[in-house]
Every structure is written in structure tokens, then in C-alpha cells.
Write a structure and sequence with these properties.
alpha+beta; Polyamine Oxidase, Chain A, domain 2; six-stranded mixed β-sheet; 10 helices; 22 strands; about 25% helix; about 30% strand; binds flavin-adenine dinucleotide; monoamine oxidase activity; FAD; RNLS; NADH binding; FAD/NAD-bd_sf
């Protein structure tokens, strides 16, 4: 049975695994490895250490379905809506730019529930804390090394991590990438920002008329969401949660600073922006070094084949211009 390794348990990796399970002409052994301790990638949902039911989306906040993508990928949206994994975003988000015909969806159980759903559907053998470091060609197969433990062999490898992390891989892969492909990969760029998630005690009131707000006049804060309100979850037993996304200039300036220092600065700015905000019981600060794609790979159509046989391919949002839908496109390869 062919052994397929998907590196990355984010949207691209999980959906790729689910599609392979459904559409592969022959049975395959599917493995998904991620360096993190949980699935989600840039669609991660953090839990309060005091109440696992209190959660906050640290990366992607909602999914925008344009009329074009609705036509192309309607079945994905229909399935996720039928299962209640996605629901229409109805809570007010101030400053959100809506184009005609666009539709926004949120995930009531947190955005990472989309990824967990696809991983479950795929039946893949999912391994966390597996950081891929090297990929070598050995007798017509890929030998994949990780930070700890022995290397393993696969017939097909799909790389779904952000492009700078692909370019850091050691071994034969570094020489197999053609000059032209290297230029394509090196042309990809990402914004950087921080996300600060805050968890509050049950019963805490955050008295603002919105569920989310885009902010244009603050050097540090770009977006705030009362995350449970965004997801229409208001309960007397589960404390509210809030997420702040910083501006890109703040993210870039503090990229190599320690996360605790950045967290303190974001917290001060938040208190000045929303005076009277109660003290959270727990916080979680995430540095998104590779946040959103600002320049996608030129002339890539959802994926880039690095080697035809054995097959080595990379995909994800860097290979299209859109996020969710781009991942769906690349996962199809
Ligand atoms: C702050 C923020 C806000 C966003 N807002 C939105 C939004 O509102 N709507 C939207 O549609 N999109 C949004 N996005 C973009 C969206 O999150 C991404 O497009 C999407 O999640 C990318 O999924 P992916 O699977 O391609 O990549 P990722 O989610 O980055 O997954 C790659 C995975 O690879 C793993 N990995 C990396 N290197 C290695 C290695 N060497 N070995 C093993 N594993 C490795 C990582 O741990 C990660 O889990 C946002 C992103 C951020 C950061």
C-alpha cells in the first residue's frame, strides 16, 4: 500500500488528507505530521486552562465565501454547514469590508473544529511534535527525518507548511528544487503579527455593542473580537474570551522580541483602548511570524510539484490568492 506523508495539520493538510482518503483510486496509508502539539496551524483555537469550554480563535476568525468560490466549492460549505461546523456570521463586526454577494461563516466550536473534522474523516495516523528537518531520496522513496526518532520512508510527500519553512528543509530536497522553483518560492511573502487571547471568569460582562471591530487608528491593535460573542455563545457558566490581533508594523517591529514583552505592550494598549476591561484569568500570546500571504507564488495554480516521481508537492495559501478556498484548491492535488 502506498505510504503518503502530509506535513502540517492545518487546513491544507487536513483537507488534503480527507480528500485523498475519499478520492484516491487505491487504498493508501496516510500519515499527517505536525511540529505543534495540536492541529489547526493558523486556524488554531486556544482553550482556557481553567475551563476547556472557554476558547478563543487565535488565527483565522471567519471564512469568507465569495460568489466565485461558492460556485467552485459549494459542496465543502454545504457539508460543513449541514454538520453545524460552520454557521453564518451574524454578530456585528464593525469596520468589516463586505463585497456584494460575499457570505461570512464562523465556527461555533472554534475555527480549529474544521481541521479536526477533516482529520477525523481522513482516518490518517496523526502525529504531533513531529518536526520535519530533512527529506532525502533513498531507492525511489522519500526518507523523511524529524527532530527526534528514526527517519521514515514514504512514496509521496505533501508539504503544507509556510514556504519559508519549506525552504529551511535540509537534505536532497534542497538540491532537487530547480532554480526556477526556488525563485517562485522565494518570491512568496507573509505579513507578521501577534495575537493575544484573553479568558475571563464566568459571569464577566464586556460591555461593548459589537462582537468584533477592525481598528485603523491604533499603532498596535488592528482587530479585536469578543470571540464567544462572534460565535453566538453567551453562557453564564462559560467565561467570555477576547482576541486582539496586532497591526503588521507592530508585529514586524517586535518579531524578534520575546513574546512576554510583546504581550505586555499589547495588554497596555488594549486597556487604553477599552478602559474598564476586567482582568483576565488567563492569557495566551501567539507570534504569527508567517501570518497572511502578502505575495503568492507566481504562476502557481494551487500547488507546486517539486519532484514528479516519487511525488513531492507543496500546497497551501501561498499558491493561490485566497485562504480557505486556496487551501481547498491545493488540497485537490
Ligand atoms: C492572525 C491571522 C488571521 C487570519 N484571518 C483569516 C480569516 O479571517 N479568514 C481566513 O480565511 N484566513 C485567515 N487567515 C489565514 C488562514 O489562517 C490561513 O490561510 C490558513 O490557515 C493556512 O492553512 P495551511 O494549512 O495552508 O497552513 P498552516 O495553517 O500554517 O499549517 C501548516 C502547519 O505546518 C506545521 N509545520 C510547519 N513547519 C513544520 C515542520 N518542519 N514539520 C512539521 N510541521 C510543520 C505548522 O505547525 C502548521 O500546523 C489568518 C491567519 C492569521 C495568522
Amino acid at each position: 500500500m502506498a505510504r503518503v506523508l502530509i506535513v502540517g495539520a492545518g487546513l491544507t493538510g487536513s483537507l488534503c488528507a480527507a480528500l485523498l482518503r475519499k478520492e484516491a483510486p487505491r487504498p493508501v496509508h496516510l500519515a499527517v505530521w505536525d511540529e505543534a502539539g495540536d492541529s489547526g496551524g493558523r486556524m488554531s483555537t486556544a482553550r482556557s486552562p481553567y475551563n476547556p469550554q472557554s476558547t478563543v480563535d487565535l488565527g483565522a476568525q471567519y471564512i469568507t465565501c465569495t460568489p466565485h468560490y461558492a460556485k467552485q466549492h459549494q459542496s465543502f460549505y454545504d457539508d460543513l454547514l449541514a454538520l453545524g461546523i460552520l454557521k453564518p456570521l451574524t454578530a456585528p463586526i464593525e469596520g468589516m469590508v463586505m463585497k456584494e454577494g460575499d457570505c461570512n461563516f464562523m465556527a461555533p466550536q472554534g475555527i480549529s473544529s474544521i481541521i479536526k473534522h477533516y482529520l477525523k474523516e481522513s482516518g490518517a495516523d496523526v502525529c504531533f511534535r513531529h518536526c520535519v528537518t530533512q527529506i532525502n531520496l533513498r531507492n525511489g522513496k522519500w526518507e523523511v527525518s524529524k527532530e527526534t526518532g528514526p527517519p521514515e520512508q514514504f512514496d509521496i510527500v505533501v508539504l503544507t507548511m509556510p514556504v519559508p519553512q519549506i525552504l529551511q528543509l535540509q537534505g536532497d530536497i534542497a538540491n532537487l528544487i530547480s532554480e526556477c522553483q526556488r525563485r517562485q518560492l522565494e518570491s512568496v511573502s507573509y505579513s507578521s503579527r501577534y495575537a493575544l487571547g484573553l479568558f475571563y471568569e464566568a459571569g464577566t460582562k464586556i460591555d461593548v455593542p459589537w462582537a468584533g471591530q477592525y481598528i485603523t487608528s491604533n499603532p498596535c491593535i488592528r482587530f479585536i473580537s469578543i470571540d464567544n460573542k462572534k460565535r453566538n455563545i453567551e453562557s453564564s457558566e462559560i467565561g467570555p474570551s477576547l482576541v486582539v490581533h496586532t497591526t503588521v508594523p507592530f508585529g514586524v517591529t517586535h518579531l524578534d522580541h520575546c513574546t512576554e514583552d510583546a504581550q505586555e505592550l499589547i495588554f497596555q494598549q488594549l486597556e487604553a483602548f477599552l478602559p474598564g476591561l476586567p482582568r483576565p484569568v488567563a492569557t495566551r500570546c501567539q507570534k504569527w511570524r508567517h501570518s497572511q500571504v502578502t505575495e503568492a507564488a507566481a504562476n502557481a495554480h494551487g500547488q507546486l510539484t517539486l519532484h514528479p516521481k516519487p511525488f513531492l508537492v507543496c500546497g497551501g495559501d501561498a499558491f493561490t490568492q485566497s485562504n480557505f478556498d486556496g487551501c481547498i484548491t491545493s488540497a485537490r492535488y
